[in-house]
Every structure is written in C-alpha cells, then in structure tokens.
Amino acid sequence: MSVVLIDNYDSFVHIIAQYLAELDEERTVLRSDPGNIARIEELDPDYLVLGPGPGHPVDSGHVELVEHFAGKLPILGVCLGLQAIGTAYGATVSPAAHIMHGKTSTIEHDGRGVYCREPGTTREVTRYHSLIIEEATMPAELEVTSRSLDDGYIMGIRHRELPIEAIQFHPESVGTHEGIELLRGFHQTYVAP
C-alpha cells in the first residue's frame, strides 16, 4: 500500500512517517505547498494523511486537499488535519480557551475507526493545539468520535459516509502510548479492511 503524508512544516512529522514505514507502507512525504493536488494524483496513493503543523487550517493547503480528494481516497487528519477536515465541511475553527501544548489528557472514544484496536474506551493522549472545532458548528456529515474528559473538546471526528477520519491529538508523541495503533486502526478500517 502507498500513502502520501502532507507535512505542514511540522517538527515531528518524520515520526508519523516512521510509523507508516513500520506499517510497511510505501510513503511519500510532501510539504504543504501549491501544486500538491497534481503531484498526489501523479503518485496515485492508496490513502492520504494530512499531518500536523502550525497555523490556521485555511492557510495550510489541507482544506483544498480534503475538498479535492474526499470520496476518492481515504483521508486521515492529525491535529491541523482534523481542523482542515472540519473546515472543509463547514465547521468553525477558533482559539481554544486553554492552550494545550505538550499536555496530556484522557480522552473517551467510540472504539471504531482509528480506535478499533483499543482495549477500552479511554486512552491517554498528548495534545499540541491552540485551536479547536466549535462543537455547535459541527456539520451533519461529520460525527464526533472522541473528546477530552478534562475540557470536553472534540478530539476526533469521522465522516458519516466517506473514509475520512481525524484526531486532534498527536499519535507520534511519546506521551501518546502506542500511537502507531491508531494509524494501524485507520489502515485496518479504511485502507485494507
């Protein structure tokens, strides 16, 4: 299987790339730059990962990728990728009341999709974000799959019909134990069921 990982100039995206290698994925990492739609179509991957990074999703180039590839490729979003998927479907992304950079939280999840390999319905995760999806603006096409127990923020979303799922936290962080299992869960659910 092949995957394109979009790097939005993030310091730790190489760890996600390493996780994908551990899953035996043929991976290509592209910087979030203009012209990626044509390049991704050329590469013809089996799925797309929208990586984390700084800034607002409307400035990242991720939203355009979601709009173009939704329904054509499975898409996994991480942090900024989650915000971009939400934005592409009409959700509002705004500053969080509490900035969560390098902080751990317990989340509760639905046990499906990326979480299908989880032994329970909660897990510890590490968060690096100052933006959130405003829950009141969640579009009908998307469902909440997980939320943090400490502040109630959305930590995961999934498209109700298309193979699109995203997490707000960082699976590549050392504080997110066995984060690779979330990528494996995405692969198992959407790429090679």
From TrEMBL:
GO MF: 4-amino-4-deoxychorismate synthase activity; anthranilate synthase activity
Boundaries of every Glutamine amidotransferase domain copy: 4-186
EC number(s) from the headed UniProt entry: 2.6.1.85, 4.1.3.27
Family matches, as PROSITE patterns: GATASE_TYPE_1 (PS51273)
GO CC annotation: cytosol
Protein name as it appears in the record: Anthranilate synthase, amidotransferase component @ Para-aminobenzoate synthase, amidotransferase component
InterPro entries found in the cross-reference section: Anth_synth/Amidotransfase (IPR050472), Class_I_gatase-like (IPR029062), GATASE (IPR017926), TrpG/PapA_dom (IPR006221)
Pfam families in the cross-refs: GATase
Highest taxon in the source lineage: Bacteria
Organism listed in the record: Brachybacterium nesterenkovii
Gene3D superfamilies: 3.40.50.880
